[in-house]
Amino acid sequence: MRRHVSRGPGYSSTILVDRQGRIRLSTDAGEGAFTPGSHREPLDRTRHDAVEKRPMKREFSTAAAWSAAAAWMEQAAAALIFLVIARIIGVESFGIASMAFAFLFLGEFLVRDTITEAIIERETLEDGRLEATFFALTGVALAIMVALIGVAQLVAHLYGQPSVAPLLTTVSPAVLMIGLGGVSTALLRRRMEYKTLAIRTIVGVTVGGLVGIAMALNGYGAWSLVGQRLAELGLNSVLAILGARWWPRRLPIRAELGLIRGLGPRVLKLRTWTLVVNQTPTVMLGIFADPRAAGLFAFSARLIEIVIKVSVRVIQGVAQSAIAELRRKTGRTSGFFLDLTELSAFAGFVSLTGLAMVAFPLTRVLLGPEWDTAGQIIPFLCVAGAAMALTATQEAYLLALDRVDGYLGVIAIEAVLGVILIGFASSFGAVAAAAAVALRAMLVLPFCTRAALAPEAIPARGFVHALASPAIVAIAMGLVVALWRLFALGRIGDITYLALAVLIGMAMALIAVVGFMPATFARLKSYVRA
Predict the structure, then answer these.
(1) What b-and-e string marks burial along 255-294, b requiring 16 or more CB atoms within 10 Å of the CB?
(2) Which helix (H) or strand (E) holds 429?
(3) How far apart are CA 51 and CA 264, in angstroms?
(4) Whole-number Cα distances in Å, 130 to 72, 98, 263, 428, 517
(5) Pick from 217, 401, 438, 235: which is nearest to 323 by CA?
C-alpha cells in the first residue's frame, strides 16, 4: 500500500506498508522504518539518526552486559556475605549498625555521582575540569567526614543508643575514600569501560565481605559491618584510580573551579533529597521504635536493594552514559528512553512481584524465625521498589539531558512527605513504616513521570504503552504464584515450596512474553542480540 503525505512547502513523504506490516517512510531526507507498537523515534527522523541509534543499541547492550555481569556477581557475593553476617550478629546488632549507617549514607550520597556527573554529560571536557572536580569533591568529602565525626555523639543521643557514636566516627573515612575515586569512576563511565568497573566492583565486594565475616566470627558484632564497608570502599577507590589511569598533576586555578557549576550542584541537591527519602524509615524507626524494628526494616530494604541492583540498576547505570552519547550524536533520545523504560519495568516488576510472593517463608529459611517480621515488611517495599524501577530510569534520562530541575522539586516534596507519613507510622512498628513507604512512592510517581516526559514532550500514552506488557506479565505471574501459595504453603517443606514457586513464576513470565507478546519479545531480544 502506498500513500503520499505533504506537511508543507519543502517537505513530502510517501508511506509504504510491506507484507510483514512494517511501515516505511520515504521522505526528502531519506527512508526509514518502524514497527507498530515499538518505541521508535517519530517518523520524520532522518536516516542519520536511525543509523546512529543502531551502534548506540550495540554499545548500550555491551556495556549493560558487563554491568549486569558485575551486578549479578557482586550482588550474589554481597547477598551471601550480608546474610552470613546478619545471621551471626543478630537483629539488634544489625539494627544498631544500620542506625549509624543511615547518617554515613547521607555523606556517601553527597559525594558519590554528584558533581562528577558533568564529566559524563559534557560533549567535551575542558582543560582543568578534571582537576577542579577532583579537588572540589575531595574537599567536600573531607568536610563531610569531619562533620560526621562531630555529630556522632548527637546522633547517638537522638537514638538513645550510645554505641552508635563510635561506629559512626570510625566508619566516616568511607566518605573520603569515595571522594578520592570519584573522578576516576566518572571517567570510566564516560568511556563506557564497564568491564573495568565490573572487575573493580567484584573484587571490592569480595575482599570487604571476607573482612566482615572474619570480624563477625570473632565476635565483633556491629563492628563487622564497619570493617566490611571500609575495606570494600577503600579497595574500590584504588582500583578505579588504577583503571582510569588518571590522577591530578596540578592544582586547579580559580577560573577552572567555575567549570563545576551547572549540573554538579543540582545533582548534589538531588542526591541529598534522595538520601533523605531512602534513610527516613531507618532514622524514624530508630527514634520512635527500637533497634530491632530498625534492623528488620534495614534488612528488608537491603534485600529489595539487591534485587533492584541486579535487575534495574544495571540498566540505569549504563542508560545515563548511553543517552548522553546518543544526545551528542543525534540530539533526540525519546524513543531510546521509552525502550529503556520498558526494559526497566520488565526487570523490576517481574522480579519484585516474585520476591513479594515468596517473602515469607524466604526470611525464615535464610535467617531463622527471629526475622519472620521481615516477611511482612518486604511486600510493601516491593511496591515502592516497582515505582523506583521507573524513577531510576527517569533520573538517568534527565541527568543525561541536563534537565533535572523539575524532577528535583518532586523529590524534595517526596522527602518532606516521607518525614510526615513515615514519622507517624514508625510509632506503630516496622510493618506500618513499610506501608507508609509504599504509599509515599505511589503518590509521587505520577509527578516524577510528568517531569521526565516534559523535556522532549513525550506523550503520556507512549509511556503507558511501554508499561503495559511488563504490568501484564507481572500480574499474570503473581496470580499463578499466589495460587501455588494457597495450595502448597504449609503442606510441603519451605525449601521445596520456594524452589517450585521460583520455577513456576519464571515459567509463567516466559510463557506470557513469548507466547502472547511476540512484538515485545522481539524488542527485548534485539537488545540481547546487539
Answers:
(1) ebbebbeebbebbbbbbbbbbbbbbbbbbbbbbbbbbbbb
(2) none
(3) 32
(4) 31, 34, 15, 49, 47
(5) 401
Question: CA-CA distance, 396 to 314, in Å (whole number)?
Answer: 12
Q: How high is the pLDDT of residue 27? A: 41
Cα-to-chain-centroid distance, residue 199: 19
What pLDDT score does 224 carry?
95
What pLDDT sits at residue 24? 41
pLDDT of residue 3: 44
Q: What is the CA radius of gyration of the chain?
A: 24
How many Å apart are CA 385 and CA 308, to the nearest integer? 7
For the segment 442-452, what is each residue's pLDDT rounded down to a tens digit? 999 999 999 99
- CB 438 within 8 Å of CB 383: yes
In whole angstroms, what is the distance from residue 426 CA to residue 88 CA? 27
Cell numbers 503525505: residue: 5
Q: What is the percentage of the chain residues whose pLDDT exceeds 90?
A: 49
Sheet of 23-27, strands arranged across: 2-8, 11-17, 23-27, 30-34
C-alpha cell at 185: 569512576
Between CA 494 and CA 366 the distance in angstroms is 11
**pTM of the model as a whole:** 0.73
For residue 191, give the nearest of 59, 334, 70, 332 by alpha carbon: 59
All residues at 6 or more sequence positions from 351 whose CB lies less than 8 Å from its CB, including other chains: 307, 310, 311
* Three-state SS annotation for 372-428: CCHHHHHHHHHHHHHHHHHHHHHHHHHHHHCCCHHHHHHHHHHHHHHHHHHHHHHCC
CA distance 202 to 193: 15
Continuous H helices in 289-404: 291-308, 314-330, 334-367, 374-401
- Euclidean distance between CA atoms 307 and 310, whole angstroms: 5
**What is the per-residue pLDDT across 220-257, written as a single tens digit (0 to 9) for each?**
999 999 999 999 999 999 999 999 888 888 887 776 66
- Return phi, psi of residue 32, to 5°: -140, 175
Show the cell assigned to 319.
542508560
List Cβ neighbours of 270 (8 Å cut-off, separation of 6 or more): 395, 404, 407, 408, 411
Separation of alpha carbons 287 and 423, rounded Å: 9
Residue with cell 542480540: 529
Q: Is 445 helix (H, G, I), strand (E, B) or coil?
A: helix
What distance in Å separates the CA atoms of residue 244 and residue 240, rounded to the nearest whole number? 6
C-alpha grid cell for residue 312?
A: 534495574
Contact 415, 400 (CB under 8 A): no
* Dihedral sign, Cα of residue 258, residue 259, residue 262, residue 267: negative
Question: In which residue ranges of the chain is pLDDT below 50?
Answer: 1-53
Instruction: To the nearest 10°, report the CA torsion of 397, 398, 400, 401.
Output: 120
User: What pLDDT score does 97 carry?
Assistant: 93
